[in-house]
Amino acid sequence: MMTLLSALTAPAPGTSPATGRVWLVGAGPGDAELLTLKALRAIEQAVVVDRLVSDEVLALIPPATLRIDAGKAPGRHGMKQQDINRLLVDLARAGHRVVRLKGGDPFIFGRGGEEMLALQHAGICCQVVPGITAAAGCAASTGIPLTHRDCAQSVQFITGHGKDGAPALNDPRQTLVFYMGLTWSAQVSRGLVENGRAAQRRWRLSKTAPASGRGCC
């Protein structure tokens, strides 16, 4: 396997660095019918697979497409994250079009941010294709809405497997996502400061979600 990877990551004669590109693709919660059309088109490329991608989704990868298993299980990491980052960079530099296929969404506890930064640092063109995250998939399949006008006005996505152990629910490093809050942004900001958030903390306001995956070239 390593001999094959060495051959694949060796630049072809006459190619220049960073001639390939990488897509970080969310495979959703498992049901292949919940894949986006953009994700389905992307997996026709060379694929580096995450452990949490379902067999139903993996079956959609064309037989001729190269597939590299980079899955990690709790306490058993087949490939360390820094090795996965390096593999993505090396494959792209060798001229390959590479898909990093992840369960759920790449940017929600999928370490997609780390991989994107490694690719950007190496000068590799990277695009993120979002997927339906596990929380949304589970909510839909169980009939338990994440929000409800009468009894649930907020959502926090918190990992149960953090880098520093168990999550602290009052950790100021949490990301808070507010939907439909543009009109009330001043009140929201004031309320956060009153509840202990730093007044100088930077926030991002978006009027609309992007219509396509964000390019990171």
Characterise this structure.
The chain has helices at 2-9, 37-42, 55-58, 81-93, 112-121, 134-142, 185-194; strands at residues 21-26, 46-49, 67-69, 72-73, 76-77, 97-102, 125-129. The protein is of the alpha/beta class. The chain has two domains: 2-135, Tetrapyrrole methylase, N-terminal domain (Cobalt-precorrin-4 Transmethylase, domain 1, 3-Layer(aba) Sandwich), CATH 3.40.1010.10; 147-207, no CATH class. The chain has a five-stranded parallel sheet. Strand 4 and strand 5 form a beta hairpin. Helix 4 (81-93) packs across helix 5 (112-121). It is globular and about 55 Å long. The mean pLDDT is 83.
User: What does the overall shape look like?
Assistant: globular
CATH domain class of the largest domain: Alpha Beta
Mean pLDDT over all positions: 83
Helical content (DSSP H or I, runs of 4+): 25-40%
List key phrases describing it.
single chain; 217 residues; alpha/beta; Cobalt-precorrin-4 Transmethylase, domain 1; 2 domains; five-stranded parallel sheet; two-stranded antiparallel sheet; 7 strands; 28% helix; 13% strand; globular
